[in-house]
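Thread amino acids onto this structure.
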């Protein structure tokens, strides 16, 4: 059996042996060498495409890693903003109320104050007379 190396190293001998068996040796060698060139070119193309795929995969991995880093940074910022809002707003419980407007009893109660000084006339407050309320707070 002939190898590609034997054909390339001594083509004249291969042509002579094929001619003895009734083949056109020159044409056969040309076809074999052309097929080998084609095989090498396809292999080179395949290797180049594999290398390009590896480069793209590495780039995608880096982008995903960066995206996750950005995503984690964004989540950290969102958590900080949410905590700041919660601390400023509070829960809205009754214990956090500053003032209660009681229309049926015509009364405004400021819960920061103590005693009878904490109740004010709601009509006065609504009409803009805030002086008694402000004086009690100061």
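Threaded sequence (138 positions):
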């Amino acid at each position: 059996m002939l190898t590609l190396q034997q054909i390339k190293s001594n083509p004249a001998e291969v042509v002579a042996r094929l001619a003895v068996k009734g083949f056109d040796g020159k044409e056969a060698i040309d076809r074999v060498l052309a097929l080998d060139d084609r095989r090498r070119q396809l292999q080179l193309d395949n290797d180049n495409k594999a290398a390009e795929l590896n480069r793209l995969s590495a780039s995608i991995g880096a982008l995903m890693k960066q995206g996750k880093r950005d995503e984690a940074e964004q989540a950290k910022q969102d958590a900080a903003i949410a905590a700041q809002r919660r601390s400023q707003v509070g829960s809205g419980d009754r214990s956090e109320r500053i003032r209660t407007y009681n229309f049926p009893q015509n009364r405004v109660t400021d819960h920061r104050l103590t005693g009878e000084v904490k109740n004010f006339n709601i009509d006065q407050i609504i009409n803009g007379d805030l002086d008694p309320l402000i004086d009690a707070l100061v």
